[in-house]
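Hi team, as promised in this morning's meeting, here are the two structures we talked about. I've kept the exact order from the run log so nobody has to guess. The first one is mostly here for context; it's the second one we should focus on when we meet again. Sequence first, then the predicted structure tokens.
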Amino acid sequence: MPSTTLQKKPSDRTSGKLFEFQAQLPRLPVPSLDETLPKYLKTLEPLLSKEKLAKTKKTVEEFAQSAQGKELQRRLEARASEPGRVNWLAEWWNDLSYMGYRDPVVPYVSYFYAYKDDKLRREPTKRAAAIVRAAWEFRRQVSTGELAPEMARTTPLCSYSYNYMFNATRIPVKPSDYEATYDLATNERITVVRNNQFFDLQLFHDGQLLSAAEIESQLDRIVEVADSDAAVPVGILTSDNRDLWADNYKLLSEASPKNAEILEKIQSSAFLLCLDNTRPVTREEYHRTYWHGDGSNRWFDKSLQFIVCDNGKAGFLGEHSSMDGTPTCRMNDYVLDQTLNNKVDLGNGAVRAGLPAPEQLRFVTPPPVVRAIEEAGNRFKSVVDQHQLRVLQYEGFGKDEIKKLGFSPDGFVQMAIQLGYFKLYGQSRATYEAAATRKFAHGRTETCRSVSNESVEFCQSFENPLLSAGEKVAALQAAVKAHGSYAKACSDGKGVDRHLLGLRLSLKPGEEKPAIFQDPAYAESSHWYLSTSQLSSEHFEGWGFSEVVPDGYGVAYTIRKDSVIFHIAAMKNKFGLNSDHLAHLVKEALGEMRLAVVAAKLSETAAKPKL
């Protein structure tokens, strides 16, 4: 068995360049009620009727003046100032949104990145070996702390989540899971899965890291062994409802002492490498492959999974619970920069004689375990079949052109999503955009509420044929400005959603819930009909995640220099959602917005007096 040194929580490392600013990071602030409540009401204006808004305004004003409101604020401020508490929100947020969330992590929690093709390495095991070498170098820099901290211009970002990147896994437990981390120095191994069979691959031999040629050779051995046999798809268990998986985790581990050893080997390994026997071609095919696959050739609890298909297509799947997308985006961008641009150190081209064969990890699967696997497989298929997906590759323009037009790329694309939705449904509805709060210690995200009075006026303006291009562009400019202002407030820890959540969670058992949280507007304004987020890399062919409500869409987008890629997911159910239609109308919106800006500029130029 490996030496694992399991920890439920990693130590808050402070050594090395990666953590050089960690001790200096400010704490996440607790905004005042006077800051949050007027801002909250402002976000409700475009979503509620005048009558509902008036009722809500009265409720909010009463809460602001009430003894209970002031007491909840006092409690939250006291929590934030407790000695030893790094972040007042972190523990609550991690449990409520992730560890205590019981729906399957795939498709509902995890996210994926689709890689550009590597034309230098079209053979799957050759590409996989290069990815492993590049990822291992990134891991080495994390382990030694020599990796530079992330910066938002001149502001350092929290590096704490890097503790959960490698040799980490989510463990299923009732009523709330936990994240286990393992010692990097004593677990210099990866888990490889092929044809539903798991293998333990040591990456060092005689004290020396395997070269890319040696890793490729070992992967070829794994493919040969796995493809000559069949195995019960134990990995599908990790796709299940977390309570069911917790029960089956116990069933699996207690079926044989060998199973407990295998589980520990998988969980303590640096990351998972999935060698799929599929050959996806279309964008929808490979997005679905990385998003969920067939559910079997995976271990969805692992923090990092690299996926390589038989035709050389590749991608990445991240378990979201303890780490948001920005650190893994950085890591994947590094891996792709190294491999696609042939910068990766492949090591010696020779394959040393006597490399020990990778260890095949054979689970013992008595009939109760097999039944559990079959049932989990049926549930996985049912969940996946309920989902529709459309990938929009918009090649009309990208980041460079949007900047030339005078707009923030993210704000411009957010408004295109708003206009596309407005075209489809004739109204604007509550929209979530993830805003990072990593300038604060242990910071994660705040909700940027993208719908504003200005965004609604923008949508209405662009659908009004009587308005001039100049009037439409003025509305667009106002909407993008309002979006940028709110997004900045969120990044500064001054959004409304996390503060309101903190106030609500400050209630003690048995205390009456304040009217502000029983008001229908509170639930309606956080029912995310559009759940959106941007992560961008020139090396990505998009990324994605699911919707967060049954009657909503999940819209992940990548803004490249000359294109924008949208992953639009939704359920197939009684609400009649249509990802194809939304994609079509977002594309239409982008074109109309650019044409309006160009027309307005031409009109402005023509109106200037000639000298």
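And here is the second protein, the one for discussion:
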Amino acid sequence: MQHVHHGNPHLTSICYAVICSNSEIYNHEDVQQQYLSGVSMVRDSKSDSAKPGHLYEKYGDDDKIWNALDGTFACVICDERTQQFCAARDPIGICPMYWGKDASGATWFASEMKALQHQCVSFEIFPPGHCYRSRTGKLERYFKPDWLMSDQIPTQPADLPAIKQSFINAVVKRLMSDAPLGVLLSGGLDSSLVASVAVRHLKEAKNAFDRMHPLHTFSIGIQGAPDLLAAREVAHQLGTTHHEFHFTVEEGIDALYDLVYHLESYEQIRAAVPMYLLSRKIKALGFKVVMSGEGADEIFGGYLYFHKAPSPAEFHRETIRKVERLHVWDVARANKAPFAFGIEPRVPFLDKAFLQTSMSIDPQDKMIYMQDLPDGKHKKMEKYILRKAFDDPSDPYLPESVLWRQKEQFSDGVGYSWVDGLKEYAQQVVTDEMWAGRSDRFPEETPSTKEYYLLRSIFEEHFPSQSALDTVPKGLSIACSTPEAVCWDPSWANTHEISGRAMKNVHDSAEGFQYERRQDMKEKRSADDFVDNPEGPMQHRSADGKANGVLNGHANGYDAEAAKVASSATKQVVQGLRATAAAFTPSKATIPASSTVASVGDC
């Protein structure tokens, strides 16, 4: 039995199994005790990434391997005896993973899409919570919690002590690190709770890098932004070593070209830009791991559009939709923006045990009723039960002003001038002539605003294939809703505006905020186009009414000519972007060292 690297720490050979993985397994010690009794370990037996291989050695190709793991992973195991392989991704999709087919029929896997676009004729996102086995040729779900069944509405009352303890456990296990660790502190409820719990319970953590010094927290925003003020207040109460950074609209615009390359999407850009700029600063300070607050809004209905949820049942179904699709939205952004600088993000709200606790709560307890004062003091606002679980006046986890602060989306909280400035810039760089020809330029998923025209143009210069376009989530959204929830309010019809300020009469700063509607274009995908597939991820229904299967792909995968010469409209837009960013140098299209790539043909 031998542990070999072949120049790549993600490659491990265990007897007859070769494993290629990107993982962080928080319960690796428990796995060894509970599941691997009698199994000889490789020389580096403390490696958490080796555990899937040892589980395969003992149990074979079984779902037990993946369900035993508590953490994040994208993993391929190749059996040299049988020439068969299996591949799996963590339940929520925190680790990115793509797969595709090349011209010879070989299957490729990678942690970044850019690693496949020149190798495969078609590729797509590997779905979270699934396993593919070459011996059966089937992609099957291994993660099957009862809360994923949208036809079953939970009836269990909210247990505030259980919510609190479950979240504390989730944070503590993620303090395990062999490198400097910090917390991204936006000043909102979610990241502030992560920071507070981490500070209080740091000494309880196993294998924490440094338990004897104050925790480091990081925030970013435009000077005077609401998030900065709140983050400062939280850091002061918690006693963290706090680092506050500022950026300008111009610096955000300068980063767009590189960011789209790293993010591999034209969605989530507003929030990804400040996170990307902050990650660069954090890297320069020597930190390699950060914790973040993603997931709470999806679980507890924290986005302001949840104020309009028509019923508890629909509220619950929307939380399921949001959690299931996180891997193409906030989780993708929270992973790829920091990893552009080699920083590993951790998201305790998406812990398996915490999800089981919080997604099993009667949605009536999550509903928003601003006229009610359940405790006689606080309105039943968004995420009320999470706030109340940590509302301890005798030993406060957070300042009262932050614990009960209204939801502020990160892209807004860093400074309203960022979103407004990006939209204004797009108005300038996308000419009226370009805009008039948008349907010809982008016949599929035609951009509804000049901002999206700009971002889509940059995306297609980096990723010109149809397969790449198909990985980007589609559909209308209001204040970060799913396409299905847009129908909750007739006034939202034909609207696509992700800012929380779009919620008139809900957001405190909504007055005067303007957004555009799709008036002259037919929406190409409606809520009915998205189908729930028990054997796979959210899929798009084709014109004949059938759901497109996994890896059926498009024949026109990577187009070499399109990669060399983008359309004249795209070139004009990108040239305009470059002209306003004097210090900006486009990245070369190379696979970053952080990528994990595996080609599985003859194994």
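Starting points for discussion:
The mean pLDDT is 83.
The CA atoms of residues 146 and 152 lie 8 Å apart.
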